[in-house]
Amino acid sequence: MNLTRILTGGLLIISCVLQAQSYSVAEGSTMQILGTSNLHDWGTEVTEINGTAQFETQDDGTLEINSAQLTIPVLSIKSDKGKKMDKLTYEALETEKFETISFELTSADVATKDGATVATVSGNLTVHGVLQSITFDAVAGENNTWSGSVPLKMTDFGMDPPKALLGALKTGDDIQIEFNLIFK
């Protein structure tokens, strides 16, 4: 009888450990920052994304996101428009003072919407030394991928939208962060 209880307890513990898993952001993950200006739309690519997440499958098969955090080195943001655009980005983000952008999950509500697994994610985003609470949707894909889009305003983070060409080129305040994160 005691052996049965010990084996049952051991199996329950192993089952709980197997259900909650920690993951890291994997190679192949992508993130873009998109915006507008009075002359043309622009975009930059984030070339380094660091982070972890913990997902847990409940007994009923539902998914919970217990934790997630991301860190982006500001100098990993690169434009296909060249070094001039990178310089404007780094000046606006004041890279000498603020070397990273970070996100820390505060809550996630995972549900099925139109046949897709969608997490309504809330968390704290720190950009340019300013912390803001944000909420956005992330859609689950195959092989532990999550994708989505987050609208932001530069001025909400204490940043002046960049200008160039003696003020003739003015970027818009609104930006869009598009991401496709792979967790392994």
How does this structure look, described?
There is one protein chain. With 184 residues, the protein is of the alpha+beta class. It has one domain (22-182): Lipocalin, CATH 2.40.128. Helix content is 16%, strand content 55%. Strands 1, 2, 3, 4, 5, 6, 7, 8, 9, 10, 11 and 12 form a 12-stranded antiparallel sheet that branches. The radius of gyration is 20 Å and the shape is elongated. The model is unreliable at 1-18 (pLDDT under 50).
Secondary-structure blueprint:
Layout: H1 2-19, E1 20-24, E2 30-37, E3 42-46, E4 50-57, E5 63-73, E6 77-79, H2 83-93, E7 100-113, E8 116-127, E9 130-140, E10 145-153, E11 163-164, E12 169-182
Antiparallel strand pairs: 1-4, 2-3, 2-12, 3-6, 4-5, 5-7, 7-8, 8-9, 9-10, 10-12, 11-12
Query: What do we call the CATH homologous superfamily?
Result: Lipid/polyisoprenoid-binding, YceI-like
List the domain count as a whole number.
1
- CATH C-level: Mainly Beta
Measure the end-to-end span: 41 Å
**Which CATH architecture is right?**
Beta Barrel
CATH topology: Lipocalin
Assign the structural class, choosing from mainly alpha, mainly beta, alpha/beta, alpha+beta, or little secondary structure: alpha+beta
Q: Considering DSSP H and I runs of 4 or more, what fraction of the residues is helical?
A: 10-25%
Q: Name the overall outline.
A: elongated
Mean pLDDT: 88
Number of strands: 12
Low-confidence stretches: 1-18
Question: What is the helix tally?
Answer: 2
Q: Which radius of gyration do the C-alpha atoms yield?
A: 20 Å
Q: State the major sheet.
A: 12 strands, antiparallel
Give the H and E element order.
Answer: HEEEEEEHEEEEEE
* Quaternary organization: single chain
Percent strand equals over 45%
